[in-house]
Amino acid sequence: KSANPQWREQFDFHYFSDRKDMLDIEVWRKDNKKHEELLGTCHVDITALPTKQTNCLELPLEKHPGSLLMLIAVAPCTGVSISDLCVCPLGDPSERQQISQRYCIKNSFRDIKDIGFLQVKVLKAVDLMAADFSGKSDPFCVLELGNDMLQTHTVYKNLNPEWNKVFTFPIKDIHDVLEVTVFDEDGDKPPDFLGKVAIPLLSV
User: Fold this and answer.
1) How far apart are CA 34 and CA 32, in angstroms?
2) In terms of CB atoms within 10 Å, which end of the chain has fewer, N or C?
């Protein structure tokens, strides 16, 4: 019931190459659980923004009245990575020793925000549901921790996909829950849900 909503939410997006990236934003109005209406869209060319500073942008909604006020910061990606299983970032014993030293008790207060990180090896899925008429699926796996999200590539026409990827997340809250969701890629349509598991960090 507001024409001037304040959300004050922060989201982190990661990209790992020098490609041209556009941030697409949509504003929706929700009457009830069933009815939603698009109130407008806007786009931000990330590559055109100055780096290592917070950019305050007022973005008019295209073809609709109103505007969005956003703070966008483009900074080097730290603590987040995607790699193949054969080049696992923690595979080197000397690197493990450096990390143990970094998080030992005497260094606990050196950087209060550096709680630690989580490394997840996504190996494979077994006996997934068939989402296509062919009796197969095109599965990919999405990992979410807080507002960080990373995903695997798609393995086409397979109910027993092997991804063999290693994902590393910085931990911002030890009470966060790692959510791992498997979807079926469906062309231009929204992906189909194939299954999900939730793992509290405190259980690891």
Assistant:
1) 6
2) N
pLDDT at 84: 76
Residue 153, domain CATH:
2.60.40.150
Q: Are 135 and 190 found together in one domain?
A: yes
What CA–CA distance (Å, rounded) separates 83 from 44? 28
Decide: 123 and 141 in contact? Cβ < 8 Å: no
Of 76, 91, 117, at which residue does a domain stop?
76
DSSP assignment, residue 55?
Answer: E
**What is the spatial distance between Cα 151 and Cα 157, in angstroms, rounded to a whole number?**
18
User: What pLDDT, on the 0 to 100 scale, is given for residue 77?
Assistant: 62
Question: Is there a single domain that holds both residue 121 and residue 145?
Answer: yes
Domain with 64, as residue range(s), is 1-76
Residue 153 tokens read as 């590539």
What the block records as the tokens of 182 is 């498997």
Segments of the chain with pLDDT less than 70: 14-20, 76-80, 87-91
167 and 87 inside one domain: yes
* C-alpha span between 27 and 52 (Å, rounded): 27
For residue 75, the SS3 value is coil
Say what the pTM is.
0.64
Report d(CA 185, CA 188) in Å as an integer.
9
Instruction: Identify the domain boundary among 46, 76, 106.
Output: 76
Pull the structure tokens for residue 14: 């990661």
- Residue 139 and residue 160 in contact, taking contact as beta carbons nearer than 8 Å: no
At 66 the pLDDT is 92
Looking at the structure, do residues 126 and 157 belong to the same domain, yes or no? Answer: yes
